């Protein structure tokens, strides 16, 4: 027996949190009875339906996308804007972005239907490393770097210490490499603003060890077995 939301996530219906929302909305039934949050199921004997369609586990799919700037990181957009899903020509499996990148941020994005792994990758408990390369306005001095490394006070609390170094400088801007381990909304941008430097451009260059490599913006590839194993090892999955 396993919790229904965990099973739905494993089937690629949604993330575990998203599956909980679907259950609470009454869109899932077990043996012709509307399911309740927290119920347990036996996939071998129970009939589980989502919106009237039989639910079954799909083969897990793992995709690395070099997200272009200008796309929304979601499956569907209520304003009919292009999403990252528009890049995935030829992918038949129902996959979902792991976490989010702002519309104006490009770089490494993982998409999968493995809800259990996705949940671990975005949960702060597992301290998954995310590395960003950003140009910020102004000359970033040593005190600002030290503050970023200590943690920056934001409206939703202080950030965890980040690994930060100056990559290069140009007239009026500084290029920073920032490594963080949590996933607060627009965290890197708000951290930089918090020390007095607005971000001019930003990209994510590493996510849990994954890099885009030879992929051009908008291109994608499937992960290798070794890469998937490394993700599982990093999160204890």
- What is the CATH fold-level name of the largest domain? Alpha-Beta Plaits
Number of domains as seen in the coordinates: 3
What is the element string, with H for helices and E for strands?
Answer: EHHEEEEEEEEHEHEEEEHEEH
Which CATH class of the largest domain is shown?
A: Alpha Beta
- Uncertain regions spanning at least 5 consecutive residues: none
Number of strands: 16
The N- and C-terminal alpha carbons lie at a distance of: 19 Å
Q: In the CATH classification, which architecture of the largest domain applies?
A: 2-Layer Sandwich
Counting copies of identical and different chains, the oligomeric state is single chain
Structural class: alpha+beta
Q: What would you call the shape?
A: elongated
Q: Please bin the fraction of helical residues.
A: 10-25%
Strand composition percent? 25-35%
Concise structural overview:
With 237 residues, the chain is an alpha+beta fold.
Overview of the molecule:
Helix content is 22%, strand content 29%. Helix 1 (4-10) crosses helix 2 (16-24). The strands form 4 sheets. Strands 7, 8, 9, 10, 13, 14, 15 and 16 form an 8-stranded mixed β-sheet that branches. Strands 3-2-5-6 form a 4-stranded antiparallel β-sheet, with no helix packed on it. The protein is built from 6 helices and 16 strands. The protein starts with a strand and ends with a helix. The protein folds into 3 domains: 2-54, RNA-binding S4 domain (Structural Genomics Hypothetical 15.5 Kd Protein In mrcA-pckA Intergenic Region, Chain A, Roll), CATH 3.10.290; 62-124 and 209-235, 2-Layer Sandwich (Alpha-Beta Plaits), CATH 3.30.70; 129-207, 2-Layer Sandwich (Alpha-Beta Plaits). The longest helix is centred in the last third of the chain and has 11 residues, at 225-235. The protein is α+β, with helices and mostly antiparallel strands.
């Amino acid at each position: 027996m396993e919790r229904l939301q965990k099973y739905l996530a494993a089937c690629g219906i949604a993330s575990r949190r998203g599956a909980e929302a679907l259950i609470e909305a009454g869109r899932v039934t077990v043996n012709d009875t509307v399911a309740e949050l927290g119920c347990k199921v036996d996939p071998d004997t129970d009939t589980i339906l989502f919106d009237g369609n039989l639910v079954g586990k799909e083969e897990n799919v793992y995709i690395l996308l070099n997200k272009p700037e200008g796309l929304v990181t979601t499956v569907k957009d209520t304003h009919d804007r292009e999403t990252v899903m528009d890049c995935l020509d030829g992918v038949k499996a129902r996959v979902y972005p792991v976490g989010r990148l702002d519309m104006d941020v490009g770089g490494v994005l993982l998409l999968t239907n493995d809800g259990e792994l996705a949940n671990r990758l975005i949960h702060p408990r597992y301290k998954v490393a995310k590395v960003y390369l950003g140009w910020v306005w102004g000359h970033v001095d040593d005190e600002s770097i030290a503050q970023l490394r200590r943690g920056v006070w934001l409206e939703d609390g202080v950030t965890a210490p980040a690994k930060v170094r100056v990559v290069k400088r140009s007239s009026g801007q500084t290029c920073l490499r920032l490594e963080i381990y949590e996933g607060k909304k627009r965290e890197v941008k708000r951290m930089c603003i918090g020390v007095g430097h607005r971000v001019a451009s930003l990209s994510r260059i590493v996510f849990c060890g994954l890099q885009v490599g030879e992929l051009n913006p908008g291109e994608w590839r499937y992960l290798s077995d070794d890469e998937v194993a490394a993700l599982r090892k990093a999160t204890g999955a």
